[in-house]
Structures
1.
Amino acid sequence: LLALAACGTPQEQCIRSATRDLAEVERLLVEVQGNLSRGYAIESRTVTQWEWRMCRVRTTTQTVGQMCWEPVDRTVRRSVPIDPEAERRKLAGLQERYATLTRQAEPAIAACRAAHPE
């Protein structure tokens, strides 16, 4: 992730940094709108399952292939019920926050463009 965060021009990095909260609120808005349109939320969690896998084991004289019992992380998704009224209130709050953050980001974006012209 650190390598990806360094991608982009200095201006793009500055703008991304200045609008990080705005991007997160936008992501949450999309999620809540999706929940309302579907009528349910989708919950994701990572579970660890164990599987037999081919692995290499080093002995004192050689490296051999053998089967090993190894953990494998998987993302599991499931539908969960929502309270539509609570989701609508959440949506309204996020829309308000998005508008506020957008107004606050404008001068920061302008400062980034002035500090790092392309």
2.
Amino acid sequence: MANGQKRVPFAAQVAELKKKPVTTSTEPTFNHIFACWRIQKIQMVDPYGWHELDMQQIEYVRGKLAEFETRTWNTIFVDEKKRNHPIPVAELDCPDAREWMRDNMPDEDTLWTLRFSGPERVWGIFRNGAYHILFYDPHHRIKLSPKK
């Protein structure tokens, strides 16, 4: 090279680039929050109302929801996504549920289902880290599952 300058190898040029640490937020995401409920919008009317439950059934539902409270939303909706997952309102098989959503929650396009047992489901919306319980579906009629 001219003027007595030595050529700097490419690897040496790259090594001069310094890594800059990036800070991450210490705020937990909704995925890492334990399940919690809002009950203001529970439907106490037909066809998917909670009004038909007797005391034994209410205790059963309370126990199931308490089991969910021991898990994070990530566990419930990611790790257990075959059992608990979102469903677009437009894909609901129950016309009453679609109509109720259109009339009462027109801005919500997704319902989230929680599986209690074989056919038994609870339906609601997920907002601000809390599950807003809407429907109790003991016979899995809101969204039918294809038979295997």
3.
Amino acid sequence: MKGYSPRHLTLASLLIFTVFTSACVATKPPMATTQMRAMQTKEYQNTSQLVAYKALTDALLDKGFTIENSDSDAGVIVANITTTRINSIELVRKAITTVFAYGLNWVFGDNNVGDVVTLDISANVSELQATTKIRINAVVKLINSEGQITKAEIITEPDYYNSIFEQIDKSIFLQQNLD
């Protein structure tokens, strides 16, 4: 191709890639409140609030969560887990800036291309007669390198909640049969 250097072609390819990857984000229709609550809630028969509360705490700890706040009398637990991931869009932006700045961006700029991903869980354990209910709400937050929340979204995958409830079931079984 006459008149175009490999550098220009690389830059054009990166820009096209960035446009396509940012435009291909699919959105799911919002879930009804009753559907969300049904997915987030499980009932336990003949299990006290304290046993269910301890099982919930154990399940969250087993999954690597840090308990931030806890009140066994109110049946409330707030927990989170944090990890980092590479922000591909920020990486591409910084690569393009580096090309235009002849590498000075990497020398003098912020080289952080990682985002912090935090999963926050708030849960409630309540007892009414012989039934104890556990409701879990999970929210994933994406925090950029400047510390700003760029995205916050409630987890709407039933399998995620089911995996926690399975761990709670195991903990309840152990508490009721080994104590």
4.
Amino acid sequence: MRYVVLVTGPFNSGKSTFVSTLGGRFSVDALIRNPVKPTTTVFMDFGAIEHDGYRIILFGTPGQPKFRPFILGLMTLKLDAIILLVDCSDPVGLVMGRGFYQMVRRARPDVPLLVAANKSDRLTARKPEEVRRIVGVEEGVPVVSCVATDRKSALEVLEMALGLLK
């Protein structure tokens, strides 16, 4: 069996890292002038993982607002689940996450969605319930802590997202 999962969210939320941590990564990136993050995804990330007898295909979107038409295009694919990553340690990232959340819910209300509060290991990280309030996530949509650089954490998020299919 095969599942297709879209990983989306604002700039610098950890989408490429999440995809890479889980299943290797092919990405189209560009150099940028940013002291915190020297490259950014300008097309998409692609990863694949074999887990529990399933083949899971991961598509990661770019996070800049100028790529919204492309992101919406990716959302027309046959998707089994969507993981929205937000940087829960960055107030600006959380506010940007609200726009992404609204876009995803409008475009694909039929696809199971999970919000992953990434970078939850940082001192400034917000708890999942705070993330839910700031991003505007309705009850019934899971919001879970995540550390995208940690394979175990990323795998738990993926398993939770796929668990929504049952």
